[in-house]
Amino acid sequence: MIKRFIISFLFFSALLYAKSIDLQNSKKLYVGFEINPLSILALGDTTFYFSTGISIFNPNNNTEIAFPILWTKEDRSINYYQNKRNIVRHYQESFLYVDTRYRKYLRSLEDGIYFDAFMRFCSIKGKLRNEDVIQRTDKLGIGAGVGYRFLPKKSPNFYYGFSFAIGRYLTENNDIYDDMFFINDHAYFIDIEFFKFGYLFSL
Fold first, then answer.
1. CA–CA distance from 201 to each of 40, 69, 153, 182 (Å)?
2. Structural contact between residues 30 and 61, judged by C-beta atoms closer than 8 angstroms
3. pTM of the predicted model, to two decimals?
4. In 3D, which of 34, 67, 47 has the Cα closest to residue 4?
5. Cβ(59)–Cβ(28) under 8 Å?
6. How does DSSP classify residue 48?
7. pLDDT tens-digit map of 47-99
8. In terms of DSSP bridges, do strands 158-169 and 188-202 run parallel, antiparallel, or are they unpaired?
9. 3-state class of 14 per DSSP?
């Protein structure tokens, strides 16, 4: 409950102090802060799911540099027998990725259609498949995608978008973990974004 309140308070406080924008008649850079509203609802005592991102929009060349972030955590346990006793081992399963994405809009930022290319840093902590071993693995990946953003021509500053992307991890340490909820460590990955809202700030 406290986590939900803090995140909601910071987000809506930023909205109150944001200046209005005009993408049509301005050549300034704009910063967008994005969040998936389901992230707030998914916060709990044993689970944590947070999907957010920061973008820099440049109307001069119709591009966007985006930094999407996904962070999930969940408390898990392993039951096993040792010396004729049932032992419960508690651990925390986690998944984090941070992307750096370059997005090029086909016409203008207001039209919304773009192609993107990206690099991904991913960190996974979980139980190895068929073993009672907890391990953390870091890896890098690359990918490309297409998407659409509903950007405002003038105020209000809210925007919404959806996208589809496919990528591949460059490292060979894949398919070593038990599958997690919404998460896997396969060599190839697919991202579908459809419920993330943002707010633009003028620099």
1. 22, 19, 13, 31
2. no
3. 0.81
4. 47
5. yes
6. E
7. 788 889 999 998 888 899 999 999 988 887 777 666 667 777 777 888 999 99
8. antiparallel
9. helix
Give the Cα-Cα-Cα angle 138, 142, 144 (nearest 5 degrees): 145
Amino acid at 108: S
Query: How many Å apart are CA 118 and CA 66, to the nearest integer?
Result: 9
**What sign has the CA pseudo-torsion 71, 194, 175, 168?**
negative
Cα 147 to Cα 23: distance, rounded to the nearest angstrom: 19
The closest alpha carbon to 66, from 32, 23, 115, belongs to 32
CB 139 within 8 A of CB 173: yes
pLDDT tens figures, 151-163? 766 656 888 888 9
User: CB–CB of 96/74 below 8 Å?
Assistant: no
Q: Which pLDDT value is given to residue 166?
A: 96
Number of domains present in the structure of the chain: 1
β-strand partners of 58: 63
Q: What is the pLDDT of residue 105?
A: 92
- Provide the mean pLDDT of the chain: 80
3-state secondary structure 96-162: EEEEEEEEEECCCCCCCEEEEEEEEEEEEEEEECCCCCEEEEEEEEEEEEEEEEECCCECCCEEEEE
State which residues form the domain around 98: 2-202
CATH number at 7 reads 2.40.160.20
**Helix/strand/coil for 91:** strand
